[in-house]
Amino acid sequence: MWIAISALNLAIAVMLGAFGAHGLKARATEAQLTWWHTATDYFFYHALGLLALAILAKVVPQLPIRMSFTLIQIGIFFFCGSLYVMALGLPRGLGAITPIGGALMIAGWLILAWNAFKYAK
């Protein structure tokens, strides 16, 4: 299931990147395009990270990844989603949840590091 979710994330990231490059470019401001680009970059990085986690779970099944995977996935939704929404011209106040998404992604990676250290012992 983890690999399937990762693959869906990557497919959506490609679609959103293409929309930003082709569909949004003609009618968005420079700031909106920057937000879109940032969201797409982070979406790709973290979708690839989720794929790496999914593969890691197959290779080292004893390493718990559920919490990390979930936090990173929710972080993608909040961080990237809020930037996409702002780039589409919806209320900029939604940008207040962007740092929450970033914190969730960071927490997911830190929990993975913690679990990896515990597993290494």
TrEMBL record:
UniProt membrane topology term: Multi-pass membrane protein
Compartment(s) of residence: Membrane
Main localization category: membrane
Pfam families according to UniProt: DUF423
Cellular component, GO annotation: membrane
Keywords of the record: Membrane, Transmembrane, Transmembrane helix
Record-annotated membrane-spanning stretches: 42-60, 67-90, 96-117
Domain of life: Bacteria
Family: Belongs to the UPF0382 family.
The protein's name in its UniProt record: DUF423 domain-containing protein
Species annotation: Acinetobacter tandoii DSM 14970 = CIP 107469
